[in-house]
Amino acid sequence: MRNIQITVNGTGYSLLVNEKRSLADFLRKDLNLIGTKIACNSGHCGSCNVLVDGKLVKACILPAVKADGKKVLTIEGLATPDGLHPIQQAFIEAGAVQCGYCTPGMILTAKALLDRNPDPTEEEIKQAISGNLCRCTGYVKIVEAVLLAAKLLRTAERSGQ
């Protein structure tokens, strides 16, 4: 067991954690943040994607102790009391949510992409989401959602929101 200091969705925690516990298990079981999904538990599907200090990581294979001293953003931390994040809104508007299991990881993947490239091409989006498996959508609507999210974010930036 090891004590870690971690900030998740803007809230600081100091908790004792088993050194073998994954970040995904820590988020789901210790913090009750169940938006981070666990599907493959081997880092292949992307359903567990979260941002750690702004970098996209597979939370199912990252030991929670490796996030000690870091800032973690999960799907629960994207929306604000004022409403959904533009990426979340774009996924809804584009019809990119089917069963919803891959959606949290897909949205955080989109956020990581749009944070570093606010105007990606369709090909760049496909490359970015290539580590995320979706069995329902066929990816067309997901790509459309990311393109829409990029447009919404650029529009909000220009209007000073």
Keywords, please?
alpha+beta, 5 strands, five-stranded mixed β-sheet, 2 domains, DNA polymerase, domain 1, Ubiquitin-like (UB roll), single chain, 161 residues
Total helical segments: 5
Number of strands: 5
**What order do the helices and strands follow?**
EEHEEEHHHH
- Structural class designation: alpha+beta
How far is the N terminus from the C terminus?
Answer: 43 Å
* The CATH superfamily title of the largest domain: Beta-grasp domain
Radius of gyration: 16 Å
Indicate the low-confidence ranges by residue numbers: none
CATH architecture of the largest domain: Roll
Helix content: 25-40%
Average predicted confidence as pLDDT: 96
Report the major sheet: 5 strands, mixed
Q: How many distinct folded domains? A: 2
- Cα shape: globular
Our estimate of the beta-strand percent is 15-25%
Query: Under CATH, the topology of the largest domain is which?
Result: Ubiquitin-like (UB roll)
Spatially, the strands of the biggest sheet line up as 2-1-5-3-4
CATH class of the largest domain: Alpha Beta
